[in-house]
């Protein structure tokens, strides 16, 4: 929702989740996002990098 954007809530939630997974011994986190998703900026700030590209052709 627009009124909650820019308050750092997503960053706090993602950071808490990442910390929890680190504590549980996970060595990698993967996520999927559609091109154009505004959250991609957040993911990059948190250290995620683009690893694969999926393409499609609408017929």
TrEMBL record:
E.C. number: 2.3.1.-
Keyword check for Transferase: yes
GO molecular function: acyltransferase activity
Domain N-acetyltransferase, first and last residues per copy: 1-59
UniProt xrefs under SUPFAM superfamilies: Acyl-CoA N-acyltransferases (Nat)
UniProt keyword annotations, A-Z: Acyltransferase, Transferase
Name of the protein: GNAT family N-acetyltransferase
């Amino acid at each position: 929702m627009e009124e909650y954007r820019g308050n750092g809530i997503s960053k706090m939630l993602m950071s808490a989740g990442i910390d929890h997974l680190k504590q549980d011994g996970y060595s990698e986190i993967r996520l999927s996002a559609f091109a154009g998703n505004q959250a991609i900026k957040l993911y990059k700030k948190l250290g995620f990098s683009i690893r694969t590209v999926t393409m499609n052709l609408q017929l």
